[in-house]
Amino acid sequence: MHGTGAEADGARGVFEVDSTAPGSAPRGLDAFRRGWETQVGDDVFQLPAFSPDTIGDFRVKGNVAKVHGAAIADLHAASATRTADVPGGDQDLVAMYVVRRGSWTLGGPPGHGDQTVSAGQFLVRHLGRLTAFETSAHLTAKFLVLPSSELKPLLGTRVVTGPADSAEMRLLTALTDMIHTTVADLGPAGVVAAQGTLIELTKAVAKGRFDDVEPRLAPALTQAAKDLANRRLADPELSPAMLARELNVSVRTLHRAFAAVGEQVTTYIRHRRLHEARLALVAPSGRLTISELAAHWQFADGSHFTRAFKKRYGQTPTEYARSTEATSPPPSHGLADSA
């Protein structure tokens, strides 16, 4: 287990645990519980009692961040987990489950059946007490715990579910990833702002829309657009209009969000495409011609690609490839090469 950022005021904390390595499972749950109680705290969320089979085989890799009264856990579980039959304990919080692989089954409120969050889905609801749950083996999921004061009036007794790749969930996921990266370095004001933005985006998820003039949401919107662009770099349809449509915002809102962080949408896309083209130029095998690279990365033709590349890197693609070859070490002729 590795922990950082445990401040005296308890406003933030980060810990990582990995009990998926052979031989580490018997200590896995102890390490996870110790990290949670030390870095996050029972005031945010009290971990329930687990079943004996879970205690004996808890193979989970987790990355958990606390921001003020909220917590974000990214979990990868090799083993199935299950709580004790009667977890017990009162609490007052809002929980969100975002499942990428596997499934997470939650005990329903009195009079209601269990609810299963399948891969590609999310569920958010208010919790008034600890409830039973179980997860499948080979689970990849995100678990968010949020204070209830602003969210409970919006949710009431509703259980909100939907696709994990909706526009609002993309924004929330981008924000949680940014928080994991930066929380250890945040000051008190940054910690409060991070929690506030989490709550605002959770409201957006519950409503199915978000307030696109809220300035705190610009970094999350920008990151979500970048994540989407990075997956579509070779797509000829990639454009600010396409990104805005996928994220359910206006093009003007998208441009405004990028401007708030000192960037431009089209510049980001062009630079990322040039970066990938530069990597392809020095690939060990199967190199493409300049014209093929230009077509693949959606430049008008080889001339446009060459001019853009030289402006960005100070060399033409051909010059860059030659200079890299000149400085590369000679190929190894060890056993692996002669096999």
UniProtKB/TrEMBL annotation:
InterPro entries: Homeodomain-like_sf, HTH_AraC, HTH_AraC-typ_CS, PchR_regulatory_protein, Tscrpt_reg_AraC-type_HTH
Domain spans labelled HTH araC/xylS-type: 223-323
Region of interest (Disordered), residue spans: 1-24, 316-339
Keywords: DNA-binding, Transcription, Transcription regulation
Keyword DNA-binding listed: yes
Superkingdom as given in the UniProt entry: Bacteria
PANTHER family per the UniProt record, alphabetical: REGULATORY PROTEIN PCHR
Annotated protein name in UniProt: Helix-turn-helix domain-containing protein
Species per Swiss-Prot/TrEMBL record: Streptomyces goshikiensis
Lineage per the UniProt record: Bacteria, Bacillati, Actinomycetota, Actinomycetes, Kitasatosporales
